[in-house]
Amino acid sequence: MPVTNGSEVSWRQLLGNVEAQLKDANEARWICEHASGYDRDEFLAILDDHVTVAMATNVQRMLARRLGGEPLQYVMRRWSFRHLDVMVDERVLIPRPETEQVVEVALRLARQKRPSKSDPLNIVDLGTGSGVIGLSMASELPLGSVAIWLTDISENAIHVARANLAGIGRAAEHVRVVQGSWFDALPVSLRGGIDLTVCNPPYIADGDEQVAQDVNKYEPQVALYSGLDGLDALRQIVSGASQWLAVGGWLVTEIGYEQGNPVSELLDRAGFADIEIIKDLAGRPRIACGQRKI
Q1: What is the model's pLDDT at position 4?
Q2: Distance CA 186, CA 18 (A)
Q3: pLDDT score at 8
Q4: β-strand partners of 146
Q5: 77, 124, 138, 182: least surrounded by Cβ within 10 Å?
Q6: Burial 232-266 (b: 16+ CB within 10 A, else e)
Q7: Distance from C-alpha of 5 to C-alpha of 100, rounded to nearest angstrom
Q8: Half-sphere exposure of 48 (CA within 13 A, CB side)
Q9: CA-CA distance, 106 to 281, in Å (whole number)?
């Protein structure tokens, strides 16, 4: 529905039209909310207000991109992750519920160590992308009880993570964002002193035909694919973690749902103990964790 004069159209009318084209009520509401600048209950309160021409044009632009197959998160340039509202675009992976569960596991392990301002934990988020893992850890653990490092080899991803850093308020004082490949990005002084490493590395095998077309087309390839078996990045991470973690430190990583056994073997060969493969909400192996004992 082309809108040439926004003042003649209400949000209720525009929402109905967008929903009819998308055939998805939730996506239609999210797009209209985003264009209006209001969320949830606030948006419901303005449904009968007139839409400005600029806002109507923005809705049409987003609708066209979504109908063209672009992921909604990139269309809106924002998404929710746990308690955060973050910027996302084609420079970084779209945050997913499975990764929220990775954070939940990491938070549990961090809290068991009883972090405090007098004895803060060193936590590293490898391959941070948009920053959601490390920023969630920073915002959900007691203020000043952790020193968090976000690393990524992609300069584009680093820019996104730094933009999202401002969204966590005072906790941002205890977060550092650095560019480089896995542990190589970190200062040497952290070697052997990291209490917890968390990551969502690329773990899809090259040429995997099960990958959804929109994922393959729009999301960054470097953050998706990792060699013939999908384990190239995980091999580097596990090897590095065995040297960079403190004794008693933990590695928590997202994995492919068919990688539980090979990742367990990687951790075992690297000398990790208390190895556990945790299932996601769909009942599939999705998170691997292990503790450095020696």
Answers
A1: 43
A2: 47
A3: 81
A4: 121
A5: 77
A6: bbbbbbbebbbebbbeebbbbbbbbeebbebbbeb
A7: 42
A8: 1
A9: 16
What are the extents of the domains in the chain?
Answer: 6-68, 94-292
Q: Residue 222 corresponds to which amino acid?
A: V
Q: What's the 3-state SS for the chain?
A: CCCCCHHHCEHHHHHHHHHHHHCCHHHHHHHHHHHHCCCHHHHHCCCCCECCHHHHHHHHHHHHHHHCCCCHHHHHCCEEECCEEECCCCCCCCCCHHHHHHHHHHHHHHHHCCCCCCCCEEEEEECCCCCHHHHHHHHHCCCCCEEEEEEECCHHHHHHHHHHHHHHHHHHHHEEEEECCHHHHCCHHHCCCEEEEEECCCCECCCCCCCCHHHHHHCCHHHCECCCCCCHHHHHHHHHHHHHEEEEEEEEEECCCCCHHHHHHHHHHCCEEEEEEEECCCCCEEEEEEEECC
Q: What is the pLDDT of residue 40?
A: 87
Q: Please give the mean pLDDT across all residues of the chain.
A: 95
Tell me how far apart the alpha carbons of residues 289 and 275 are, in angstroms, rounded to a whole number: 6
Which phi and psi (to 5°) does residue 151 adopt? -125, 150
Give dist(CA 229, CA 205) in Å, integer. Answer: 5
**pTM exceeds 0.90, yes or no:** yes
Q: Are strands 285-292 and 245-254 parallel, antiparallel or unpaired?
A: antiparallel
Q: What kind of architecture, by CATH, is found in domain 94-292?
A: 3-Layer(aba) Sandwich (3.40)
Q: 57-66: per-residue pLDDT in tens?
A: 999 999 999 9
CA angle 212, 215, 220 (to 5 degrees): 150
